[in-house]
Amino acid sequence: MAATRKVEIVIIGAGPAGLALANWFRDSDIRVLLVDTKPGPTPRGKAEGIKSTTNEIFDSFGIGPQITAESWRLEEIALWGPRKDGGDGIVREQVIPDRAEELGKARESLLQQSRVEHHMLQNLLSHSSLEIKYSTGPTSVQIDESHSHPGNDYPLSINLARVKHDENQANGTQTANDLNEDGNIEEQIRAKYVVGCDGAHSWLRKQLDISLEGDLTDSVFGKSSRVVDMIPKTNFPDVRRVCYLRAASGTILMVPRNNKEIRLYIPVESGSALPDPKDLTFDRILAAARQIMAPYTLEAGAVSWWSAYRVGQRVGSHFSSANERAFLVGDAVHTHSPKAGQGMNTSIQDAYNLGWKLRLVLQGRVPVAPGALLQTYEAERRPVAQDLITFDRGYLKLFSASSAQFDTEFLRAMKFTTGLSIRYLPSCAVQLPRGVDALGPSLLKADLVPGKRLQDFQVVYQADGVSTRIQTRMQATGAFRVVVFAGDVANAELLARSQRLGEFLADPVSGLGRLTMARGDTSATWQQVPVEVLVVHCADRNRVSLLDWHEVYRPWSSDEGYDYWRVFADAESTHDGHGRVYERLELDGKKGCCAVVRPDGYVGAVVDVDDFQGLRGYFEGVGMLQAENPVVNDKS
Ligand SMILES: Cc1cc2nc3c(=O)[nH]c(=O)nc-3n(C[C@H](O)[C@H](O)[C@H](O)COP(=O)(O)OP(=O)(O)OC[C@H]3O[C@@H](n4cnc5c(N)ncnc54)[C@H](O)[C@@H]3O)c2cc1C
């Protein structure tokens, strides 16, 4: 008889989505079991492009530096088209910078999915509450909905089995055989939550009877595309730029990789050079590429991967099921063309949205009541997936647009692909204290808006003038941050306002002290507070002293003394320039404001520095001021 044991979460699928979700739990004692039918991490191919928001997520998991060091930044995009004089061949039409001004940093870098998975996996391995089983998959899931909520039980029953593998000769990849549903059950797992991160053919989605809505075809780039990763030997001058090549004989999207390789995407039906035979060979793909790139030459050096794919543009009817006991994340619940480089990014961002919510519920920091935090996952991420499909259709059409239209449209598209335009609707986690209609035009224009991601900006530490970026300060610990934009605190009245706010933030009875103050006086206890308080002022740093601030802004611990890393200035750095935070976020330095930033870096609320009730109301809304008793995990 198969062994039975309990875990809090079963994650099905250890691709980008599953690994990102598991990373939310790496410093907790929440038991997470990650299973994947494949024998190990993705060896090659698939996604490459990492958007800056996703890099911020890696920073928050503590793996940003490794990933940045291995990645290749994209700086320029070249557009090539047919010769205007009617002659044969292609000519360069324009080169545009790959930049989104608002980001203040690189928009995109490239690193292959296998390396991204590698770093996320390594980050998990030393944490004993997380277990990863490859060559393992589920054969059945049962959800006892009568036990759903309140949350100290294990209503899910999942059977797991081992998988045998076959070598796929054509590409050297491995595919899983069907799991043996009868004789091969290895374990029976009781769990509180199950999350399907199991890709486009999601097993869990089928078990939950959730349908995918939308088209099965990638309408502009054709029903299928070919993709090749290889070292080119060529006289094409833009081989190290991202290039869109449009010739009478077809279309190529060419992307430089982090070694001397390039990736070529060649849609099958975009021209006559590449017909659509089922038995397409690498040589035929190469021949088609040569025809499109003529008069430039192309020979293949080492070829590391080539494949064919067909993509539907579809979104799941639901992202969760069974009273928020089961969730779907990433490709399991939305698919689209890979050409805008959104699949891996969106999958990781879905997981990032869900992970902190599950963490807070499982730690007993918020109640498991229906109508609460976990429902915001579907409410927030499904519209993003729907927008992505709409965007994807338009984006693909862009490549058949005229060169003159291209850069305007492309710049617009870049805002979307960076995630700058995502804004979650009001909920318990995104609050507009004065109602949606009360948002004035200037607040809507500003980027410090509830529901949008807090823009990453450069500040300097008050204590030593060292520059840093605010998102790197926001590690994925499950903590909210109250960021007090205190204004020009060289003005005594503005400093006094921040001090009154500090008293409220530290008060355990009528304020937020239960959330902001440590239960103990060591640095370790301070690192576990559910709400961290940070300050960004815009005064002359030399007229401000850290020790003038209320202790909630510079807490004391018995082992390490003062915390110097919570008060920042919007000021010139000795080496890195000025972040101009107040200017970029359109903040009034004579007034300031206070933002609640959720654990995933999105703004939950923006209130006036004096609006104590607005702040308290936010945490009451999320449920953090009601949930007194942490859920105790049953360790049996
Ligand atoms: C050619 C190509 C190029 C691409 N380029 C980009 C790009 O540049 N940028 C970008 O963002 N995206 C790109 N994508 C898309 C990207 O690869 C996917 O969107 C991304 O991998 C989705 O991540 P995921 O974790 O949701 O799913 P997957 O990566 O599909 O992972 C699912 C995991 O679940 C496992 N699994 C499946 N079924 C089971 C089961 N029953 N039990 C247990 N485990 C199971 C699988 O083995 C797999 O490991 C590209 C895709 C392709 C095909």
From TrEMBL:
It comes from the Eukaryota. Residues 6-391 form the FAD-binding domain. GO terms for molecular function: FAD binding; oxidoreductase activity, acting on paired donors, with incorporation or reduction of molecular oxygen, NAD(P)H as one donor, and incorporation of one atom of oxygen. Pfam families: FAD_binding_3, Phe_hydrox_dim. Residues 423-623 form the Phenol hydroxylase-like C-terminal dimerisation domain. Keywords: FAD, Flavoprotein, Oxidoreductase. The keyword Flavoprotein applies. Belongs to the PheA/TfdB FAD monooxygenase family. This is Phenol 2-monooxygenase. It comes from Trichocladium antarcticum. The lineage of its organism: Eukaryota, Fungi, Dikarya, Ascomycota, Pezizomycotina.
